[in-house]
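Many introductory courses stop at the sequence. We go one step further.
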Amino acid sequence: MNTAQFTPAGTLTAEDLGRIHLIGVGGVGMSGLARLFLTRGLPVSGSELREWPSLAGMRALGGTIHMTHEPSNLDGVDTVVYSSAIPQDHVEMVEARRRGLRVLHRSEALAAAMTGRRTVAIAGTHGKTTTTSMVTMVLQQAGVDPSFVIGGEISEVGSGAHHGTGEHFVVEADESDRSFLIYRPYVSVITNIEADHLNTYGDLATLEAAFAEFARLTDPDGFIVTCADDPGGRRLAQTLRAEGRRVHTYGEAADADLRLSDVVSSAQGVRYLAEVDGRSLGEFRLPVPGRHMGLNSASAVLTAYLLGLPVEAAEAALAAFPGVRRRFERKGVADGVLVYDEYAYHPTSMTLAMRTLREVAGEGRLIVVFQPYRLYRTRDLQAEIAAALGLADELVLLEVFGPGELRQPGEGSAALVEAVPLPADRKVFVGSWEDAPVEVARRARPGDVVVTMGAPPISLMGDELLAALSARAGDAAGGAGGSAATAG
């Protein structure tokens, strides 16, 4: 079990960090933090081994990116920032300690950046990236210019971080390693609580206790928002209210403080009516499909309402919400096949995503290219993951992405593919990355929807799938007049 401890937020500010170096700066969480520091005018460097798309933007902002990991990268550095994915024996971690540099976990560095701001922290097993993005856009629409750091990029903004002039700081709070317990939010939003990250917590009860501890860190003058439709969120609300804390709920449940009704989801988007304590707030519309998207947006509406912001700002922001990269992100069309990318890897979020994709596919088939995330999760939730994958028409399964994990006999995707309730000819485990586009090109037909789903590396495959489908079309046309891929 992961028992890492982090230093609670204090008086340390971002400016106190001096010259900042981030190990593994291309990752979604680290790149957002780097961008925040850069837009704040702080000197930033980072190290990477892969040319992630975010690196070009960091260079444009003045960041120094080293495409190696080595001790000399720390020359002139005052503070080294690492994530939970970086082992303690990493060459730059070892060198930082040898030199006596300040070494901070990503969450500790982020807490320093939040000093002096009113933090709105969004946590939960599912939906926190999308919800954080929605809250951010609602606050922006209201004209309060929040700072934010999100574990993904808002598609229209093209960034997961910004240094704003307003008093609010919106942040996605990660429970996976307990690091969310260092924050001291003014507002805490908890979208849902389900069994996950049990390598850290051991069991659901311990995980729920950690979420309760997170909620109790909320400023007494602030408030807590939970989902009345989620059993874990409902239990948490009952516990906190019994302690006299200010808790507000949202959902379709009859006793939710903000209640959704007449929810309609289609390929064109989702809409619903909302009311607070029996008072109508009107209709809200999102251009992205999925009933769960409507539920996520309701937490943003409730948060804005409780902060005293105009309901009209929430309506306008959600009506223009472009989605989040890697959350139901449309990559393009090639040879009549529509390709999406989706971050889901927990069985609940996978099921929600595939049901939404079926709305988009209509009469077409749904082909899932899945890369499981972490061996322990794939092992412990194998039956649930297999059931979710069984909602697909065709499955192409890659090996589990589990950096730093030791594979035991019988663990991994070879065992998972056998458990998926699909006929043998409609599922395949591919041993290499290069085999996946070949399988998709062989299986997909015009009118089908293909989604890459799961661990972070799979997000890089969408363009390769489009290229393989376009090449197939060119071959079919004899090299002339083939259908080209259309991005976006």
